[in-house]
Amino acid sequence: RMGGRMEQPAVVPQRWKVDAKGSGVRRVAVAAFCGLALAVVVCLTVVQQQREGGLPSALDEKAAGLSKGQKQHVKAEIARLEAKVKKEQDSASKLDKEVEDEEMKLRKTVVVAKKKREEGDKLEESARRKVHDVDRMRDEAQHLRKEADAARRKFLSAEKPVEMASQLAAHDHAKYRSSELKVAKEVVLLSEHPNDAKIHREVSKMVHASKEAKKKMEGDSVMLKKLEQRAGSSRFGGGEGYDRLKQKSVDVAQDAKSIAKRAEKLAEKGHNLRENAAQEVKAVESDMRRPDREHKEADALRKKYKAGDAKLNKLRAELDQGSGGGG
Predict the structure, then answer these.
(1) Domain spans of the chain?
(2) Any idea what the Cα angle at residue 237 is, between residues 232 and 241, rounded to 5°?
(3) How many CA atoms lie within 13 A of 200 on its CB side?
(4) What is the pLDDT of residue 45?
(5) Residue 83: what pLDDT?
(6) CA nearest 120: which of 273, 18, 300, 246?
(7) Considering the entire predicted model, what is its pTM?
(8) How far apart are CA 124 and CA 35, in angstroms?
(9) Pairwise CA distance, residues 267 & 262, whole Å
(10) How far is CA 31 from the centre of its chain?
């Protein structure tokens, strides 16, 4: 109303009305297109920012809106995980300590077994040396035995002529004595019958026989002395007698036998030590694998509590972000 008059609406030409209607449709279409384009741009921007970490994740948005009950639940879960991680850490540390102690104990066992094996090697080597000594002593005893047999043969070869010469000398001596006795008897007869020619011839014959017997007896005596000297030289000159050599051979053989027994005992002891050492090492082989298993178990526990740590960190972050919200 102006100046007391009612203002009449302007009369719009019909052509203009048609044009205005067409322009409105076009404006709506343009606005819709612009809105769609803007939505596409916003979506692309959001995706790009999420990729670059510029926008909070859905989990963060969720955490930012944690309720009091949810926060308490997260705290309880954190406490449970912390206890679990602590338990796993303690178990891993305990296993590490057990592994270290077992490895130390096993090393000691292996060292003891190694010393036993070395001692066994030394004993067996000593036994081999003694066996070598036994062989040498047996050879020596055999050599002495041969020397003793040679000395005996030499002794017998020297004694036999002496024995034969002694027998011959005794025989000739007896023959000489018999001849002398016959001569004496004939001389008595001759004194009774001095003119008996037959007795004279018999006496002469017997005297000649007696002289021959005496001469032979004296030769036997000289030969016997020479043979006895030679036999004495074979017994005592330049070497030991048969009995001495034989006894020495027996003594050496006995020593060799005694050493052989000691060598056998040493070899047996050395073998037993080596066997014992091998059994001890074999016995700890399975024990030596146990530390490896426990190492793996400890590593698995460490992986578990590291995973628990990661989960704890995530929950703590959620709780922190939830505390920053309105809960």
Answers:
(1) 14-55, 68-324
(2) 80
(3) 5
(4) 44
(5) 79
(6) 273
(7) 0.35
(8) 101
(9) 9
(10) 94
- Other Cβ atoms less than 10 A from the Cβ of 150: the count is 13
* Mean pLDDT by groups of 10 residues along the chain of 327 residues: 43 43 47 45 42 42 60 77 77 77 76 80 81 82 78 67 70 75 77 79 81 80 72 53 74 83 82 80 68 69 72 74 53
Q: Note the pLDDT of residue 232.
A: 62
The answer to whether residues 246 and 145 touch, using CB atoms and an 8 Å cutoff, is yes
The pair of structure tokens assigned to 99 is 């592994």
Q: Which CATH class is domain 68-324?
A: mainly alpha
Rounded CA-CA distance 259/5 in Å is: 158
The Cα–Cα gap between 204 and 315 comes to 160
Cα atoms in the Cβ-side hemisphere of radius 13 Å centred on 269: 13
Residue type, 236: F
Q: Are 116 and 276 in contact (CB under 8 A)?
A: yes
Reduce the secondary structure of the chain to three states and give it as a string: CECCECCCCCCCCHHHHHHHHHHHHHHHHHHHHHHHHHHHHHHHHHHHHHHCCCCCCHHHHHHHCCCHHHHHHHHHHHHHHHHHHHHHHHHHHHHHHHHHHHHHHHHHHHHHHHHHHHHHHHHHHHHHHHHHHHHHHHHHHHHHHHHHHHHHHHHHHHHHHHHHHHHHHHHHHHHHHHHHHHHHHHHHHHHHCCCCHHHHHHHHHHHHHHHHHHHHHHHHHHHHHHHHHHHHHHHHCCCCCHHHHHHHHHHHHHHHHHHHHHHHHHHHHHHHHHHHHHHHHHHHHHHHHHHHHHHHHHHHHHHHHHHHHHHHHHHHHHHHHHHHCCC
